[in-house]
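HUMAN: You are asked to prepare a plain-text protein record giving the amino acid sequence and the backbone structure tokens, both parts labelled.

ASSISTANT:
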Amino acid sequence: QVQLVESGGGSVQTGDSLNLTCVASGRSAVYDTMGWIRQAPGKEREFVAGISWIGVSPKYADRVKGRFTISRDNAKNMLFLQMNSLKPDDTAVYYCVARSGRILEDDDYDYWGQGTQVTVSS
């Protein structure tokens, strides 16, 4: 069993920063790829960022490139998402996700956290 627990969400203003954290537990072999997916009210899930076990060449959605940075600490089984220059369009529930295999830029991930709310006001 794999459990993913997010934290770090909150309510901020345009231009502010937040750092999301995800702690993973369980069989590490099944989550060599981890990422973040978000869902805004009334909208479909959207891939945000993904990173492989070795952390080389992470992938980002075009909408967040240059503003968000994904990273991980494998020794602590932790995943991070540093979000800078936040915009109202970034408002969503952010989910920590994991899967075995390569990074997918969609929502086809096997394991999901419960989500953390990020609200950006103008």
